[in-house]
Amino acid sequence: MAKNISVIVGSLRRGSYARKIAEEAIGLFPDGFDAHIVEIRDLPLYDFDYDDPTVTDKPTPAEYVEFRNTIKSSDGVLFVTPENNRTIPACLKNAVDIGSKPNSDVAWKKLPAGIISHSVGRMGGYSSQKNLRLALSYFDMPLPGQPEVFLGQSPTLFDESGKITVEKTVAFLRDYVERFARLVEDNPR
């Protein structure tokens, strides 16, 4: 049975570079892996009242339940994120928070994770990746080690059809995806 990989894009814009990078990465997974984007655009803002058993007049949104179940049924999660104001975008932090509750059933717990960050500048989303790693460290999620993936000047990576054309970058991404796939295989939930 194929390993189920949820890919979470930290940008809501349909034509975002993060989405293009995610689509490229999906194509690099080895046989035996089914990687697909899990949309986060319609997740309501996190509110603990939804998960507080003492609050009875605010039922948990169906979007929370579906998202949490999707993540819990995953064998791994690959985050592809831009950098916004030196951190992760609000939509991605919201998704992390939603998956972190309820405390008795955290969707992220021990789930193998990979992170690809990018920016239009030269730093490649360094700050966003480090902030995301910090948030995920709380959930005991295994992550690939070095080299990490920081894609700088991301607009220059794509041709007019939206494909990454720099072969060195494709090879670097392939290596990371393959290392992440081995991490998933070595860390079943």
Secondary structure blueprint with pairings:
Blueprint: E1 3-9, H1 17-26, E2 33-37, H2 62-72, E3 76-81, H3 90-99, E4 113-118, H4 126-137, E5 149-151, H5 167-186
Parallel strand pairs: 1-2, 1-3, 3-4, 4-5
What would you say about this model in short?
33% of the residues lie in helices and 14% in strands. It has 189 residues and is α/β, with parallel strands linked by helices. The longest helix is centred in the C-terminal third of the chain and has 20 residues, at 167-186.
Quick tags:
33% helix; alpha/beta; Rossmann fold; 5 helices; five-stranded parallel sheet; 189 residues
Q: What does this molecule look like?
A:
This protein is of the alpha/beta class. The chain has one domain (3-186): Rossmann fold, CATH 3.40.50. Helices cover 33% and strands 14% of the residues. It is built from five helices and five strands, in the order E-H-E-H-E-H-E-H-E-H. The protein has helices at residues 17-26, 62-72, 90-99, 126-137, 167-186, and strands at residues 3-9, 33-37, 76-81, 113-118, 149-151. The chain has a five-stranded parallel sheet, with helices on both faces. The mean pLDDT is 96.
